[in-house]
Design brief:
This protein is mainly β and about 425 residues long. The chain has helices at about 25-40, 145-150, 250-265, 305-310, 345-350, and strands at about 10-15, 45-50, 70-75, 80-85, 95, 100-105, 105-110, 115, 120-125, 130-140, 155, 165-170, 170-175, 180-185, 190, 195, 200-205, 210-215, 220-225, 240, 250, 280, 300-305, 325, 370-380, 380-390, 395-400, 400-405, 410, 415-420, 425-430.
């Protein structure tokens, strides 16, 4: 789930420009060798791995020995200023996207993108022939460590039969998983507000890989989950009418979220984690109390995983890979998403302090009903998905009904955050507002 860089390892990715002259593909190997040689020669104190970001058959690298010239490197010092350096700094530093720039023919190139991704790799995108670059490196952020330092009370929750509605501060709950520890908020915290991309969010928690899970503090409008309801398939965030875990067609609500992402978050994609997904568990059962793996197609009355877990007061943060929605470049999940955005699950609402069969009041409540991502059941020719209802309870609603939409995303562990997390002084992700 997480790829670690050693103390002395630095990875540089050059995202290349496509060219249609396939006959020049013979040049690829020699050019790659030249670039690798240049990197090693110019930065002898660190180990580099060159990564080509598109299949070789689609074009050639549009660089030669003189195409890329790193004119100057600067590293942030303890006082906040910058010292000129001769080697790319080791892991723990990130490219300052606002200060770093490249010039072509003496003019600054506004199209080039220079950034450090969530894996600690320095990425050079849209470089042109003759680019001369000036790179500024900041001490990398540890957003999740900042949060853990601020929340001094950690509580292990052993059962989910009692609601948590306490107003609290500096408190996180946690659970151990096979991948590490998950931290999450429950009850009514006063300090889980975060501003990202100019939008106010509530923090749901911290994932095993250190990324920070967010839910929109408001909503982005209303949508049906799917325009249809008379097939088992319509419980799916993506679906195929012939397959329980099908991924052929996007749901109505996925299309709604994707369009919103394009308009509001795509410009900030470098800050968004892709290694934690969104669970839309379609584990089928024809038994309403115990999962038997049957049903899920052909109009069969089916009780999905959320139905059984809800009625047993036994939520889970685990998810089958085929129903863990992730983007194609992720190392986990079904890799079916266009963008790394989804919805909260019924299980996460129970973790946040809700209980089955009654009303409750937590930070995830609102005065309107909104969709979760959790299929509930298919019965009497109608598909139902769980909704966080305005009456403060979890309620299954038919998929063609309209409810509000609250996006969920995960931001990378290495973001730099400031603030105290209150509604009047929310945490702010540096460089995104």
């Amino acid at each position: 789930m997480k790829r670690y860089l050693t103390e002395r390892e630095v990875v540089m990715i050059f995202e290349t420009l496509k060219r249609s002259h396939l006959k020049r593909n013979i040049m690829i190997v020699s050019v790659i060798v030249v670039i690798i040689s240049v990197c090693i020669f110019n930065f002898t104190r660190a180990k580099y791995r060159y990564t080509q970001s598109i299949p070789l058959v689609n074009g050639i690298i549009n660089y030669s020995l003189a195409d890329l010239n790193i004119i100057a490197l600067y590293q942030q010092n303890d006082s906040g200023g910058y010292d000129e350096i001769s080697t790319v700094p080791t892991a723990g530093y990130v490219i300052n996207e606002e200060k770093s720039y490249c010039k072509v023919s003496g003019e600054q190139d506004k199209n080039v993108k220079l950034y450090t991704n969530g894996k600690g790799e320095h990425v050079f995108s849209n470089l042109k022939k003759g680019s001369k670059c000036y790179l500024y490196f900041d001490m990398g952020g540890n957003g999740y460590k900042t949060l853990l330092e601020n929340y001094t009370t950690l509580i292990k929750r052993d059962n989910f039969t009692s609601k948590i509605e306490t107003v609290m501060a500096k408190t996180l709950y946690y659970e151990e998983t096979d991948l590490g520890r998950i931290y999450y908020f429950a009850g009514n915290p006063l300090d889980n507000y975060l501003k990202f991309a100019g939008i106010l969010w509530r923090m749901v928690g911290i994932n095993e890989n250190g990324s920070i899970r967010l839910i929109h503090a408001g909503n982005i409008g209303a949508s049906a989950f799917n325009n249809g309801y008379d097939s088992n398939a319509y419980v799916g965030y993506m679906y195929n009418s012939m397959i329980v875990h099908g991924l052929t067609t996007s749901s109505t609500i996925k299309t709604f979220l994707d369009e919103w992402y394009e308009d509001n978050l795509q410009a900030f994609s470098n800050y968004i984690d892709i290694e934690v997904g969104f669970c839309g568990d379609r584990t089928p059962s024809t038994d309403s109390t115990t999962s038997n793996g049957q049903g899920g197609t052909w109009g069969t009355t089916t009780y999905y995983g959320a139905y059984i877990r809800y009625n047993a007061s036994n939520p889970s943060l685990s998810c089958l890979n085929e129903d863990l929605y992730t983007v194609k470049d992720s190392n986990v999940g079904n890799k079916a998403l266009t963008y790394p955005i989804g919805l909260i699950s019924m299980d996460e609402i129970l973790y946040a302090g809700g209980v089955a069969g009654t009303g409750f009041s937590t930070y995830l409540n609102s005065n309107y009903s909104y969709w979760t991502m959790s299929p509930y059941y298919f019965s009497f020719d109608s598909a139902y998905v769980e909704v966080m209802h305005a009456d403060n309870s979890l309620t299954p609603i038919r998929t063609d009904y309209s409810n509000y939409v609250r996006p969920v995303i995960n931001i990378k562990s290495n973001v730099i955050i400031t603030g105290s997390g209150t509604s009047s002084d929310p945490y702010v992700v540096k460089g995104t507002n």
